Amino acid sequence: xxxxxxxxxxxxxxxxxxxxxxxxxxxxxxxxxxxxxxxxxxxxxxxxxxxxxxxxxxxxxxxxxxxxxxxxxxxxxxxxxxxxxxxxxxxxxxxxxxxxxxxxxxxxxxxxxxxxxxxxxxxxxxxxxxxxxxxxxxxxxxxxxxxxxxxxxxxxxxxxxxxxxxxxxxxxxxxxxxxxxxxxxxxxxxxxxxxxxxxxxxxxxxxxxxxxxxxxxxxxxxxxxxxxxxxxxxxxxxxxxxxxxxxxxxxxxxxxxxxxxxxxxxx
Length: 267
Hints:
alpha/beta; 18% strand; two-stranded parallel sheet; 267 residues
């Protein structure tokens, strides 16, 4: 890969990738509507709004691989999620197709499967089970990726990212934590891996309590280094204040937001 584009480069993961991938490729193009620090050697800054297809197409010019992180990154109302996470994600893939980008790495989320019971170990073969509007938007993005892989020949990797942060903050995050170091490794593996068509990958660290399995993806070479158990003593010393609904599901608090269903009917 000669030129790699990162959308949402001003966000938490975007800033981490900017540092972690610096110097790894001849050109790292950084895009966001939020301000970015001045370009350094090997970097290019392109301001582009995800909802503007023409702007996204210009941002894709000369790009070999796009890492799409842009959009709303937390649970919110549908009207807030819709423009960037749905229309914007479509624009990213369509712009990539129009400009001949070979590979797109899409930042999905474990909230795309957040309504599975936490006790259950799952892999990529499970059907989506989103836990709110944000999760629905990520399921949409995965479907768009599948379409553009099948119909237009893009190589697409959808990363179901867990709780990305410096260290896990609570008991649930010990299952789904993704460290900055492992995030850089995972994205780098998806950029550099031998040819693939469409894959879904759980973005979590090497956590003892991990309930996700990346079945059949050994070829990526992703070998996470960090383990949330290193922080267990501090986390388990604090009171467990997770509510009765949240503690049952992979999505934690998101399934509980606005919940008025019947728990007994959710297998």
